[in-house]
Amino acid sequence: MDNKDNQKLHIAMFPWLAYGHIMPFLEVSKFLAQKGHRVSFISTPKNIQRLLKSSLSPLITFVELPLPAIEGLPQSTESTSELPIHKGHVW
């Protein structure tokens, strides 16, 4: 293995579950993959299904992380876009 191969990284991207975070993280993932780095993009199954996989590098792997049901949130909520407006703020 030459020195250039040793400089390649395997990076885990785990954005906050909101599209304002997911999409920029995806763009960074694409940039890193163009540089030859492997990327594991971690998100919920629904969020991963919404991303356009066909135009992505084979160096990007999507890792589905199912979320458990959380009391007070609608069933199967996986991103802030699925929350009613009155539940959007948690702080």
Provide a quick synopsis of the model.
It is built from 3 helices and 3 strands; from the N terminus they run H-E-H-E-H-E.
**Cα end-to-end separation:** 49 Å
The tally of beta strands, per DSSP, is 3
Radius of gyration, rounded? Answer: 16 Å
Number of helices: 3
Order of adjacent strands in the largest pleated sheet: 1-2-3
- Helix and strand succession? HEHEHE
- Outline, from the CA principal axes? elongated
Uncertain segments of ≥5 residues (pLDDT<50)?
Answer: none
The largest pleated sheet is described as: 3 strands, parallel
Structural class: alpha/beta
Beta-strand percentage range = 15-25%
Q: Give the helix proportion (percent range).
A: 25-40%
Write the layout of secondary structure elements.
Layout: H1 3-6, E1 10-13, H2 19-34, E2 38-43, H3 45-50, E3 60-64
Parallel strand pairs: 1-2, 2-3
Q: Your description of this structure?
A:
The chain is of the alpha/beta class. It has 3 helices and 3 strands, in the order αβαβαβ. It has helices spanning 3-6, 19-34, 45-50, and strands at 10-13, 38-43, 60-64. Strands 1-2-3 form a 3-stranded parallel β-sheet. Strand 1, helix 2 and strand 2 form a beta-alpha-beta unit. The longest helix has 16 residues, at 19-34. The termini are far apart. The model has no long low-confidence stretch (mean pLDDT 82).
